[in-house]
Amino acid sequence: xxxxxxxxxxxxxxxxxxxxxxxxxxxxxxxxxxxxxxxxxxxxxxxxxxxxxxxxxxxxxxxxxxxxxxxxxxxxxxxxxxxxxxxxxxxxxxxxxxxxxxxxxxxxxxxxxxxxxxxxxxxxxxxxxxxxxxxxxxxxxxxxxxxxxxxxxxxxxxxxxxxxxxxxxxxxxxxxxxxxxxxxxxxxxxxxxxxxxxxxxxxxxxxxxxxxxxxxxxxxxxxxxxxxxxxxxxxxxxxxxxxxxxxxxxxxxxxxxxxxxxxxxxxxxxxxxxxxxxxxxxxxxxxxxxxxxxxxxxxxxxxxxxxxxxxxxxx
Length: 315
Prior knowledge:
Blueprint: H1 2-21, H2 24-41, H3 50-71, H4 73-78, H5 92-110, H6 115-132, H7 142-166, H8 176-197, H9 201-206, H10 212-216, H11 218-238, H12 242-260, H13 266-287, H14 292-309
């Protein structure tokens, strides 16, 4: 009986490790950008089928984050990111299988929709590959990585949601405000990326990754991040994007406070990033209440996995 319980426990842990490889918490900002794009494109006028959009963006995230873990395995271990592949908790074969499945799943859904959605899906996949895989490895060059994160996670995902709704709404037409919203989201997501690089400076420098924090130092990079936040706030006002505006207003004091200390503390940077992501996610629920379900599942799983299985206080 004891042997059966132990076998069952090991099976659950193995399954949890593979789910954790998909980075559920990092899927949340992708979902929020997609849903806010969906709302702007016609969700506010009755467009449906947002769950298919969530599935598409989930597959994209799994492919992109999976490939990043595969090529950053050693650096992730050095930076103590508690990721299952870096910790040797899943096999390289399964990591590749999950990653490729994610990209294939996204393409299968995206290429059979409208031409705009098909093109955006292919661009997202190619950008995700170029970001982590040689020979380009955009992640290791500060400007390329900054642009890729802003454009990929922010603008392109927002546009995916926008066109997903637009083609369902006969009375809806493409608006110039969509472009401003794209830039606002690109700036906001680039900001979060900048502050994320502040957390891994030592390990990134050791492995030859020239992130913006490695290139310009912590405080100057943080100042660039605050500038990006200000740009997103201003554009959110102009483009009438209240969710992004509210997120920027609430998150700014936390980012500024983290930089104001004589020595920049990683814990405060992490807190500011979490607040920004969480506020944007919560505001998204007011647009689409059903988004509460995947948000609770992602956060709940991460809390149980990291605290109960890995024994670390995260998230």
